[in-house]
């Protein structure tokens, strides 16, 4: 079998590090030369400004600007690329022609569902954007952010490692990707059963805050809590009134989550709210570290920055925000008529189980979009070396954030045949609505005790 290291073109800056284990990596900030590149050949987030050789990936020219026709502030969103038609489609019949642009998991889905699954590929747009203060913080982080074991210090309010030297730095860029400061969304979540049934597991309201991105803050005043979540269930009826809150810290040992169950009428701290433990937010069908493709402890794994490649990604899904859930989620996978794919460059990061650790997926590969640093696809292998799960994430152009922001995500179990899709927004009144930052007690156990009313 061909090694993964023969499949990808390693970036010149990471070649000397490919053989290093995680524990051999010293804490070392970037250089002034790294920061200078963010105003030269790299975007303010560290992506290559230039397009590719054949022009199928254009140059980045500042991201999306302007407004989206028909979009209602604080409500439902519009599609900036309405009317565009696919350039081509990838199916089981022609996947061999596009094999070098497909992840292992997407190839497996094409083979598993040859009569129904396909990729409609559209023109590539590079819409990634952020406020200038986020760019300024990213430039500062380029010379001040450091790893301390698996935690980071000296970073605030921007991408921590825009010119990454190793896989751990790259995955922290994903965990701290720009998505706004505070927002809320109404959403549905669904189980996709192996026999094609669709089961609603969550009808909820989610509120989120990223204290790491509070404007005007600084690294020396940052308390380490970078992402906070509050999810309240309105349905299905058996789960109505359930709530879960969580606060993620740059030192994973300080992260904490609490759950309120209506039958018990009490708040409980989740004893192991991480890793491959099932999360109550998905009715136990998805693990904690599969939220947003990866949201987990990094010290279970050794992280390797394999390099860069061009890959077909699910990208710019604004169109499906106008599609009813029943049209999108209607079988063993999402209806490909409504899913947009584009060719983008990605950083490839490989995670392998560290000595003395345990996890159901001892090996994973993550594909981080170079423009946003968000993991858009990932594949996981089980203890027998079988390709087990493929994970994916959708992003949306949101000029009011501003940004190209992730929201919907899910996975397919390639062995058991079932799947899960989280944060489907098509049936809802508002879709990712920016808000003023919520108070901290919105996301704490004590605050949850005051909120639980059923």
From TrEMBL:
Gene3D superfamilies linked to this entry: Lipoprotein localisation LolA/LolB/LppX
Source taxon at top rank: Bacteria
InterPro entries from the UniProt entry: DUF1329 (IPR010752)
Pfam families: DUF1329 (PF07044)
Keywords from the UniProt entry: Signal
Cleavable signal peptide: 1-29
Name assigned to this protein: DUF1329 domain-containing protein
Species of the source: Pseudaquabacterium rugosum
